[in-house]
């Protein structure tokens, strides 16, 4: 008898994080698992993966998805015990995910009916427990369905039903399973899932405690999360060399350091100051010569960010890539890493004089002070970009700008303040002042840089943390509080992010690099 080929008997079970390639299979499985209930949209699952990929798990058998679960992190003390599923998940999009929260909140577990009995659900719950332990979270909280309650609702209350299940006099496929996995009932919530007819809309709020949890002073009893920002209103004047430019830049980074800032923010295309000592006068050729300084510019700002321990939004700079010129803003983190954001909307002036090409991708960046976005000047005047960034978790939008007259400046300012209000986000604008009389198309500048907040009682009266005097070389330093921002998004006088009518309208974002439409 020849040696058996054991591979023919294998049934490979893989537990892993969900990817975008899994979305269609999960949606199909959900229809089978929860008939009659409103399923996820692609945009929900895409949002989960974008915002908290570590918390989304699936089980795969021979290439087929047979189970999945979704979760987010919250500080549960900020929520009402009587919350609904929509409250705790921001209507399924988890944009309220709080990386600094204490609790992992499970929002769905499902196993394909054909594969029940294989302990797939137990594997998913174990993955959550391991994640909670790895991230040092205090507990896992779930809102559990009680799908057999509809059989008993005319003879007992939800509390009585739960007590009977706890006493093992009644079997409930969800509640019994959760208790067997170490969860205890905290309370019963009414109207948790309005379309859950089997549970008569009730749900059990349950918790599993991480006995290895160690409180960290960074998060324990946190009442504020201040982030200090220094905005540089930069003077454009003639210089003789890149070294002179570097000395000016370092001076302002040093100022930011002296104030204990987390971010230093420079204006849009302030590196055009280098054109003042270049001999090329034709604008379209001058920008290509300017782009030759890109490596020096990146080396300078990377070094400054690390040496002065401050995250730097390095304004923006004209960069040549594949024979095209782009307007690119760079984020230089204080840990030495670098990110970049292309300007998406190019002004008529940029096209006419410099031949600038638009970028195609809107990014949101992780920093040690939360998630941020950069939108260069004209981009802040298109509200869809800010909404997309906030949906991806941005708490601060930095806006380097360069405007030559007051009308242009006011367009940037008014739109930045509007974005702060409508998205419940902080916005920061940093502009150039002065004159470059030797440089074609960069002769005059107008700016009044500032830091803006939403408009509500928690913030400064006029929604302004601070602003520079107009047209003077100076800085403004201010603190924005991310903890106040999170609380205001949940309990503010108005709650734009929560109250928008997703049943009537939604944002569709098309990533032109992949030519794939994505619902957001």
Automatic annotation (TrEMBL):
UniProt KW keywords: Hydrolase
Domain N-acetyltransferase: 13-211
UniProt keyword Nucleotidyltransferase, yes or no: no
Gene3D superfamilies: 3.40.630.30, Carbon-nitrogen hydrolase
Domain CN hydrolase: 227-482
PROSITE patterns from the UniProt entry: CN_HYDROLASE (PS50263), GNAT (PS51186), UPF0012 (PS01227)
MF terms in GO: acyltransferase activity, transferring groups other than amino-acyl groups; hydrolase activity
A Pfam family it matches: Acetyltransf_1
Protein family per UniProt: Belongs to the carbon-nitrogen hydrolase superfamily. NIT1/NIT2 family.
Protein name as annotated: Carbon-nitrogen hydrolase
Species the sequence originates in: Terribacillus saccharophilus
């Amino acid at each position: 008898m020849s040696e058996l080929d054991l591979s023919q008997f294998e049934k490979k079970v893989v537990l892993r994080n969900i990817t975008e390639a899994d979305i269609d299979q999960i949606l199909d499985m959900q229809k089978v698992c929860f008939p009659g209930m409103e399923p996820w949209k692609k945009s929900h699952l895409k949002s989960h993966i974008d915002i908290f990929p570590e918390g989304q798990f699936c089980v795969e058998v021979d290439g087929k998805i047979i189970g999945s679960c979704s979760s987010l992190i919250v500080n549960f003390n900020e929520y009402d015990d009587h919350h609904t599923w929509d409250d705790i998940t921001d209507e399924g999009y988890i944009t309220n995910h709080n990386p600094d929260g204490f609790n992992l909140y499970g929002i769905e577990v499902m196993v394909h009916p054909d594969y029940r009995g294989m302990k797939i659900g137990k594997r998913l719950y174990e993955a959550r427990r391991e994640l909670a332990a790895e991230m040092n979270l205090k507990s896992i909280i779930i809102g559990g369905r009680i799908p057999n309650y509809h059989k008993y609702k005319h003879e007992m209350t939800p509390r009585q039903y739960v007590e009977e299940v706890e006493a093992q006099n009644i079997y409930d496929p969800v509640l019994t399973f959760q208790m067997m996995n170490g969860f205890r009932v905290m309370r019963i919530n009414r109207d948790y899932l309005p379309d859950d007819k089997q549970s008569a809309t009730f749900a059990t709020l349950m918790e599993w405690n991480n006995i290895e949890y160690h409180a960290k002073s960074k998060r324990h009893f946190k009442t504020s999360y201040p982030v200090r920002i220094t905005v540089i209103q930069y003077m454009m004047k003639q210089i003789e060399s890149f070294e002179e430019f570097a000395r000016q830049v370092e001076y302002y980074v040093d100022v930011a350091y002296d104030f204990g800032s987390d971010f230093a923010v420079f204006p849009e295309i302030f590196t055009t100051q280098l054109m003042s000592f270049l001999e090329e006068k034709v604008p379209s050729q001058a920008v290509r010569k300017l782009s030759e300084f890109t490596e020096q510019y990146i080396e300078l700002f990377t070094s400054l960010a690390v040496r002065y321990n401050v995250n730097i939004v390095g304004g923006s700079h004209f960069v040549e890539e594949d024979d095209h010129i782009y307007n690119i803003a760079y984020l230089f983190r204080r840990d030495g890493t670098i990110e970049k954001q292309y300007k998406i909307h190019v002004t008529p002036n940029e096209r006419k004089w410099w031949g600038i090409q638009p970028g195609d991708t809107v990014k949101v960046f992780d920093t040690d002070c939360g998630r941020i976005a950069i939108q260069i000047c004209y981009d802040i005047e298109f509200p869809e970009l800010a909404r997309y960034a906030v949906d991806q978790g941005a708490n601060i939008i930095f806006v380097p700008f360069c405007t030559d007259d007051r009308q242009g400046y006011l367009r940037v300012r008014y739109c930045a303040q509007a974005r702060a209000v409508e998205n419940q986000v902080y916005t920061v604008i940093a502009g150039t002042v002065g004159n470059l009389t030797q440089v074609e198309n960069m002769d005059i500048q107008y700016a009044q840089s500032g830091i803006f907040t939403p408009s509500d009682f928690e913030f400064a009266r006029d929604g302004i943390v601070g602003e520079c005097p107009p047209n003077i070389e100076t800085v403004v330093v201010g603190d924005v509080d991310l903890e106040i921002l999170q609380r205001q998004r949940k309990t503010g006088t108005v709650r734009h992010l929560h109250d928008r009518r997703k049943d009537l309208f939604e944002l569709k974002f098309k990533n032109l690099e992949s030519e794939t439409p994505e619902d957001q």
